[in-house]
Design brief:
Elements lengths: L11 H18 L8 H23 L4 H18 L5 H23 L4 H6 L7 H10 L3 H33 L7 H41 L3 H4 L4
Helix pairs in contact: 1-2, 1-8, 2-3, 2-8, 3-4, 4-7, 7-8
Length: 232
């Protein structure tokens, strides 16, 4: 019997430090001409999330779709600032990334392979063999598939929420022309504020969806939580 070594989960603390905290501080505090200047500050700030993304890719030998979009998002932000494009493009970009993810989630459901199932129904976490066998014995497999489809729609809605809030936040905060110190400072402020305003509510929504899936499993199978989850 072969054992697979699961991919190491990313360190959330390091993600916050390299993707949000350090870039925000650089953009907000070091963009003035007396420090790094607007262009150098933007380049250095963007190097941290880019570098962390590349490090994570090399370390885990893989990059999922969402991580790839995050990498592209960082590059687009740099392009908007360095080429001094209209700030409207920043708002569009901020909304486009989560919209693209939400669209992929929605389409995956129509293809009969809802992404929510891959994300949440992890064999390392759930006793899937027992769950599926019990669902089959009780003739509840189709009902569970319907519940998973609904959960997948809810997941797509969380990305719609993120897209709308990202656009509003970008339009509200980043109003200075790209390529200026003010633009960098506002970009840093937006990055910092986006975590409590967007990321935390989105995480709460994901937890609620996870609770809905687990509640559906216990109700349809009659299994207890310690039977549903792997105890290993």
């Amino acid at each position: 019997m072969s054992t697979q070594t699961p991919a190491k989960r990313p360190n959330t603390f390091l993600e916050l430090i390299f993707n949000i905290a350090i870039p925000s501080v650089i953009l907000m505090k070091l963009s003035g001409d007396e420090y790094l200047g607007s262009v150098n500050a933007l380049i250095i700030a963007l190097l941290f999330p880019l570098g962390f993304g590349l490090y994570d890719f090399v370390k885990n030998k893989s990059m999922n779709f969402i991580s790839l979009l995050g990498f592209i998002s960082t590059l687009l932000t740099g392009g908007i600032g360095l080429f001094e494009l209209d700030v409207e493009w920043l708002a569009i970009k901020e909304a486009a990334i989560p919209s693209a993810i939400g669209l992929v989630v929605l389409i995956s459901g129509f293809w009969g392979k809802p992404l929510i199932a891959k994300i949440m129904l992890n064999p390392l976490l759930f006793n899937l063999e027992l769950i599926y066998q019990t669902l089959s014995n009780k003739n509840k497999t189709d009902v569970f598939k319907t519940r998973i489809q609904w959960a997948n729609h809810l997941l797509a809605i969380t990305f719609v929420f993120s897209a709308v809030m990202n656009y509003i936040l970008a339009k509200w905060i980043v109003v200075s022309p790209a390529g200026t110190a003010e633009f960098n400072e506002q970009l840093g402020e937006m990055t910092l504020i986006s975590y409590p305003i967007i990321a935390i509510p989105s995480m709460i929504m994901l937890i609620a969806i996870m609770f809905y899936v687990v509640k559906s499993l216990t109700k349809l199978t009659g299994l207890k939580l310690d039977e549903i989850f792997n105890g290993e």
